[in-house]
Amino acid sequence: MISTKGRYGLRVMIDLAQNDNGSYIPLKDIADRQEISKKYLEIIVKQMVEGGLIKGLSGKGGGYKLVKKPEKYTVGEILTLLEGTICSVACLADKNYDCPRRKKCETLPMWKEFDGIVHDYLYSKKLSDLL
Amino acid sequence: MISTKGRYGLRVMIDLAQNDNGSYIPLKDIADRQEISKKYLEIIVKQMVEGGLIKGLSGKGGGYKLVKKPEKYTVGEILTLLEGTICSVACLADKNYDCPRRKKCETLPMWKEFDGIVHDYLYSKKLSDLL
DNA sequence: CCTATTTCCTACTGTGTCAATAGGTTTTTG
DNA sequence: CAAAAACCTATTGACACAGTAGGAAATAGG
Fold first, then answer.
1. Quick check: helix, strand or coil at residue B30?
2. Do A129 and B110 touch (CB under 8 A)?
């Protein structure tokens, strides 16, 4: 289940794309338009800056803006940054985890296939597809 | 993310299918084979009985068994029972929930499409496919 | 009838994440 | 210098997850 973090973050990205006029867009405007608490968005947006998805500028006239064109972002990369991982099952989420039942597990192949389908969908979907 | 409840429950179903000899299979045997705490499985299995997925018999010689042939179960129905709902986003999980942004939400169509893909995969997958 | 086996039932608990809220500091422009 | 904005740290209440614990009721075999 995708949490509000991922969902709100995606909406911020869409808002930034739709209201892009070359300059920085203040978070207050985004929060108002999207009807989301500005304080909560700060946490999310901070993560997006750290992850290199967007850039921020302090001070008057500051705000946030995209660093790439909307068609260069995939929904998958946005969600992965905010959700940590988009994995359907815990066994696949941590690549270093070596499950003792890996060899004989009857469900693992299915989870892998399922994960592939999810991954393919989300990484083929572009931010520009949502405008 | 599918929790242990759903994953363990699915493995119980597979175990019941694989070890079906007409009579009831004690939970202890399943727990031993699957290397899962019997106590924890009790909770999961209880839910599966209540949901009509399997039936249980108390007393000596008792245990659990499937009520249908493995090819008659879908992975989707098993997971839905145990996880409550298999929905990628909260807005779609509760059918009665009327989101105020429903009309103008740019992400809703994508979530619906995504949910459809997930749903299709899990409900087309049969328990018998995992044996 | 007794006993071993098994499900069935209620309750509890520690840990962690989610979804915010609160209050302040720093940066920048007009 | 003042307003506006990002930036930063901390806290909180609620809830779900992943079990654990202990016993009651049911049932079959001897």
1. helix
2. yes
Pick the closest to residue B5 from B39, B54, B51, B41 (CA basis): B41
Q: Is B114 on the interface with A (CB under 8 A)?
A: yes
- Check whether A82 has a pLDDT greater than 80: yes
CATH number, residue A75? 1.10.10.10
Is the pLDDT reported for residue B57 higher than 90?
yes
Q: Do A110 and B129 touch (CB under 8 A)?
A: yes
Residue tagged 């809703």 (tokens): B108
Close Cβ partners of A112 (under 8 Å, ≥ 6 residues apart): A92
The tens digit of pLDDT for each residue in B25-46 reads 999 999 999 999 999 999 999 9
Longest dimension (CA), chain A: 60
| Nearest residue: Cα versus C1' of D25 | B58
* CB proximity A106 to B under 8 Å: yes
If you ran DSSP here, which 8-state letter would residue A106 be given?
A: S
Residue position matching structure tokens 């597979």: B14
Our count of domains for chain A comes to 1
Q: State which residues form the domain around B61.
A: 1-131
- pLDDT category of residue B98 using cuts at 50, 70 and 90: confident
Contacts of B100 in chain A (CB under 8 A): 35
pLDDT of residue B100: 86
Q: What digits encode the pLDDT tens for the residues A30-52?
A: 999 999 999 999 999 999 999 99
Q: Are A65 and A59 in contact (CB under 8 A)?
A: no
